Amino acid sequence: MIASVHGRVGHVGLDRVVVEVGGVGMLVHTTPATAAACQRGQEATLATTLVVREDSLTLFGFSGAAERDMFETVQTVSGVGPRLALAMLSVMGPDELAGALTTGDTKALTAIPGIGAKSAQRLVLELRDKVGALHGTGTPPAGTATAATPAEPWREQVTEALVGLGWSGKQAVDAVERVAADAPADAEVATYLRLALRELRR
């Protein structure tokens, strides 16, 4: 298992980064917050977990071990795969997710695309005790977000990222429009994405 990667950041996307390790560019799927903390051309260290499938090897990266542990823990529940686990952390973050699970806040959990009322109840039932030790240990990634992007291109980038996290195209477009009406014109792409995620949880 690849437990961590360290190297120069060669590319930063909304939900992925490429870290150059020993001359090899490793594509690492991340939450938007983790990606935003990475800067192209600078060194980065990510806690990682490698998901092995019959036809693929996919590397997921996190700001720290606590976030990675939460990613792995939620997947112990039937029906929760790595993509849904990453979406859970993207929408709520490790601390908020742990809090929702330990307090039984199913309403907050159903704000995550792909999780309905029954799924939320099952998550709470199976994970309440498991995540108790993790609650409050997650640390938001520190760093400067990616460079600002021209006003119009961010709409497409954010819409694609939201659809990739599980929302429908209409939901994504509506959220982007609401953000565009209120957000400052010179905000960074990662900021627009965080605002859109907040809109979708309302």
Q: Which descriptors would you attach to this protein?
A:
five-stranded mixed beta barrel; Holliday junction branch migration complex subunit RuvA; 202 residues; NA-bd_OB-fold; alpha+beta; DNA damage; DNA-binding; DNA polymerase, domain 1; OB fold (Dihydrolipoamide Acetyltransferase, E2P); Helicase, Ruva Protein, domain 3
How are the elements arranged and paired?
Blueprint: E1 4-12, E2 16-21, E3 24-29, H1 32-36, E4 43-53, E5 56-62, H2 65-74, H3 82-92, H4 94-103, H5 106-109, H6 117-127, H7 153-164, H8 169-182, H9 189-200
Parallel strand pairs: 3-5
Antiparallel strand pairs: 1-2, 1-4, 2-3, 4-5
Main location: cytoplasm
Region (Domain III): 149-202
Keywords: Cytoplasm, DNA damage, DNA recombination, DNA repair, DNA-binding
Architecture overview:
The chain has a five-stranded mixed beta barrel. Residues 136-151 have low confidence and may be disordered. Strand 4 and strand 5 form a beta hairpin. The protein has helices at residues 32-36, 65-74, 82-92, 94-103, 106-109, 117-127, 153-164, 169-182, 189-200, and strands spanning 4-12, 16-21, 24-29, 43-53, 56-62. With 202 residues, the protein is an alpha+beta fold. The chain has three domains: 4-62, Nucleic acid-binding proteins (OB fold (Dihydrolipoamide Acetyltransferase, E2P)); 66-127, DNA polymerase, domain 1; 153-200, Ubiquitin-associated (UBA) domain (Helicase, Ruva Protein, domain 3), CATH 1.10.8.10. Helices cover 44% and strands 19% of the residues.
